[in-house]
DUF485 domain-containing protein (Methylobacterium ajmalii), 87 residues
Amino acid sequence: MSADHTLARSSTDDLPQARLGWIMAAIQTLIYAGFVGTFIASPETMTRPIAPGMAVTVATVFGLLCILSTMVLTGTYVLIANRLTAR
């Protein structure tokens, strides 16, 4: 197999993984934009405690969910991309 053929094959094989990566990046961007947008549009909502008397605010929980969603999306990408590569 020539080097040119290997290079051509790898660029087309990477297309599904690249598309998946961009889709997941867009999803994470929307999640983060929702977090920031809520702060901009309604700061009183984000500074409200989760329950009366608690120090934990909605912003704290929302921020942790943003971080968790990043980890879940990354793990999902790795699993799917590895399966696509193994084909």
Q: What stands out?
A: The chain has a mean pLDDT of 86.
